[in-house]
Amino acid sequence: MRKAFTFANASSFKYRLIDEVFILSDEPWRGFGVIPSSGLKLREEYKSFDAENMIPVSVPTHEENKACICGEILRGLKIPPECRLFAGTCVPENPVGACMVSNEGACNVYYKYRLNE
């Protein structure tokens, strides 16, 4: 039986290549905010390959609704009905937070299968 990937069984050559090309970066995550060192960006010497620099794309920032508790739901601290937006303002047809956006989101699933219990 093969074990899951770990740093201990990783190829050092692959990691040297990743380390050569990328640096860790702080990145925003829906429902969590910015998580330090959770992303990768190209190092300065590889910026000429960076599509963000080559293609002028403007991605609008999204201000999260302060009443949404999706981050706490994703961390297992609360359940969907504890959110005051759940099944009122926030429904699958008009999602407010990340948990209701996709069919696999915690709030979306809870809404579909437990709302009538």
Overall description:
Helix content is 27%, strand content 15%. The protein has 117 residues and is of the alpha+beta class. It folds into two domains: 12-54, no CATH class; 70-114, no CATH class. It is elongated, with a radius of gyration of 19 Å. It has helices spanning 12-21, 51-54, 70-74, 98-101, 106-114, and strands at 22-29, 33-42.
Oligomer: single chain
Give me the secondary-structure category: alpha+beta
Strand numbers in spatial order across the main sheet? 1-2
| Strand-residue proportion | 15-25%
The H/E string reads: HEEHHHH
* Spatial shape: elongated
Number of domains: 2
Main sheet: strands, sense, barrel? 2 strands, antiparallel
N-to-C CA distance = 41 Å
User: What portion of residues is helical?
Assistant: 25-40%
What is the gyration radius calculated from CA atoms? 19 Å
The total of helices stands at 5
Stretches with pLDDT under 50, minimum 5 residues = none
Overall mean pLDDT stands at 85
Strands, count: 2
